[in-house]
User: Fold this.
Amino acid sequence: MDQEQARRWLSTALAEARAGLSEGGIPIGAALYGADGALLGRGHNRRVQDDDPSLHAETAAFRAAGRQRSYRGTTMVTTLSPCWYCSGLVRQFGISRVVVGEAETFHGAHDWLAAHGVEVVVLDDPECTALMGAFAGRHPELWSEDIGDDQ
Assistant:
């Protein structure tokens, strides 16, 4: 995938992450793009705001996209490496590509996705890393809960 295009699409996910943070939530954002490059849906993690443990950024973007006849050729863009739950969604519906803003704060399951035929592009974006790192440092209990780490 063209890195310039990936970074443009990441800006949508980053705007969502910032929106989530401004609402008092976890700053993870995502966007689902069609094979033709059209934005299908966007969203951010709303686990805190909605008291719903299943409302991750990727699921929010997926839900916002509505039903699609096929997900072949679509790209999920996320500010953070997707967890197992969100990676399962990608595999279940045949999303072709995942663009990851950063995987330093949380490595997630993007290697598993790549091993199963999903194109994975990790951008190592410094803004994504700084946003998540600062949040995890300020809210370690909430961060641990979000990534399923019992501590």
The mean pLDDT is 95. The two ends are 37 Å apart (CA to CA).
